[in-house]
């Protein structure tokens, strides 16, 4: 069957533009197979990364139809079926290829038929959150720098190195399996909303690797690591919990789940007074257990004002409080929700089960 490939191209610092290539392909052809044919048969200037072709190295990560994936793993048939499923729910979502607003009109590459608009189309673009070097090749240096920032290697400095290797039980080793599957393809980093708005956030890939170190019984710096990962929005508290990193990970590492595991380690070891982030989570849970939902009158005072101890934090609440009063949006009373006892018992049951893990 004939398929049109809309590829977003760009030189370093240049204006991005979209270019079309039409290929006769099998539904079982991978996206990487198609890119190879475009480069070999139609346009030798097209640039993209590749290596193992077997979902191991992570080199060929790129955005395929709007989400980051491995070109060697996704095939044409799967992508067209996915687009049909999206169109069934939101017909306008796939009516036109999605490119940045700065892109000029799509160019017809040599060999592309003018009547190709009726053919199925696949859109390919470079990964996000990284500078573009050329076409589908991005500069991954920020990705590697942020990984290095979490010190992703087992440390034994706190112990005397024995004459034989450190041994682990099968259960201890099993805790490392999921995070150990990460191939550092950059898909989660590419789609991370937190990283897009806050360049200080290290990214889900780094924090997934960070949890592997926290969970490793051979490591001797767990407390120091948790302090490092507890830093404001640079660490775990910068995650917006959008779950997009989980949805695009080709190896089911579930980076957001690993970030949540680090948060649980911090919450179990830290008191409310140690940071606003810790206080936010613990106060939220306490207030819901008390009344079934959050009492906004107490929430700001306890979290931002640190139970009336942080005068600067309290002062920062003043303008917001005045606007709420003027617009009659400040709750003067609080009525607990129905079923508060049931909510409380469920939350306590979950907390007990987590503490037993």
Strands, helices and their partners?
Elements: E1 2-9, E2 17-24, H1 31-42, E3 61-64, E4 67-70, H2 76-89, E5 107-108, E6 121-125, E7 132-134, E8 137-138, H3 141-149, H4 170-174, H5 177-180, H6 187-190, H7 193-197, H8 204-215, H9 222-229, H10 244-248, H11 255-269, H12 276-291, H13 296-303, H14 311-326, H15 340-356
Parallel strand pairs: 1-6, 2-5
Antiparallel strand pairs: 1-2, 3-4, 3-6, 7-8
Helix pairs in contact: 3-8, 8-9, 8-11, 12-13, 12-15
Structure annotation, total helices: 15
Q: Quaternary status of these chains?
A: single chain
Q: Please summarize the sheet with the most strands.
A: 6 strands, mixed
Q: Give the second-level CATH assignment, the architecture of the largest domain.
A: Roll
Q: Overall 3D geometry?
A: globular
CATH fold label of the largest domain? Ubiquitin-like (UB roll)
Q: Would you count the extended β strands for me?
A: 8
Structure description:
With 357 residues, the chain is α/β, with parallel strands linked by helices. The protein folds into 3 domains: 2-134, Beta-grasp domain (Ubiquitin-like (UB roll), Roll); 140-269, Fumarate Reductase Iron-sulfur Protein, Chain B, domain 2 (Orthogonal Bundle), CATH 1.10.1060.10; 273-356, no CATH class. The chain has 15 helices and 8 strands. The strands form 2 sheets. Strands 4-3-6-1-2-5 form a 6-stranded mixed β-sheet. Strands 7-8 form a two-stranded antiparallel sheet.
């Amino acid at each position: 069957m004939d398929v049109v490939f809309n590829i977003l191209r760009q030189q370093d610092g240049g204006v991005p533009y979209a270019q079309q290539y039409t290929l006769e392909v099998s539904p079982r052809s991978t996206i990487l197979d198609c890119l190879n044919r475009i480069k070999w048969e139609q346009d030798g200037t097209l640039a993209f990364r590749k290596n193992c072709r077997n979902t191991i190295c992570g080199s060929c990560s790129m955005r395929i139809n709007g989400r980051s994936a491995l070109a060697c793993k996704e095939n044409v048939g799967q992508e067209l079926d996915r687009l049909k499923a999206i169109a069934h729910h939101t017909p306008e979502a796939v009516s036109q290829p999605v490119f940045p607003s700065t892109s000029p009109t799509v160019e017809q590459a040599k060999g592309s038929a003018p009547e190709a608009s009726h053919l199925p189309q696949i859109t390919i673009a470079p990964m996000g959150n990284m500078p573009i070097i050329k076409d589908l090749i991005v500069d991954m240096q920020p990705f590697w720098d942020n990984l290095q920032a979490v010190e992703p290697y087992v440390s034994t400095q706190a112990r005397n190195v024995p004459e034989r290797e450190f041994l682990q039980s099968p259960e201890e080793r099993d805790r490392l399996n999921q995070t150990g599957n990460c191939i550092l393809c950059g898909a989660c980093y590419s789609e991370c909303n937190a990283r897009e708005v806050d360049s200080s956030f290290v990214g889900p890939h780094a924090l997934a690797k960070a949890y592997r170190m926290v969970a490793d019984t051979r490591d001797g710096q767990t407390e120091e690591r948790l302090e490092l990962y507890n830093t404001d929005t640079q660490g775990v508290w910068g995650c917006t919990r959008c779950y997009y990193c989980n949805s695009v990970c080709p190896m089911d590492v579930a980076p957001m789940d690993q970030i949540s595991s680090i948060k649980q380690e911090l919450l179990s070891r830290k008191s409310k007074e140690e940071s606003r982030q810790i206080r936010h989570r613990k106060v939220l849970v306490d207030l819901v257990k008390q009344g079934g939902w959050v009492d906004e009158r107490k929430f700001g005072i306890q979290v931002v004002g640190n139970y009336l101890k942080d005068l600067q934090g309290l002062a920062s609440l003043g303008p917001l409080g005045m606007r709420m009063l003027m617009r009659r949006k400040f709750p003067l009373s609080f009525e607990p929700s129905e079923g508060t006892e049931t909510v409380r018992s469920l939350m306590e049951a979950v907390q007990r089960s987590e503490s037993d893990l």
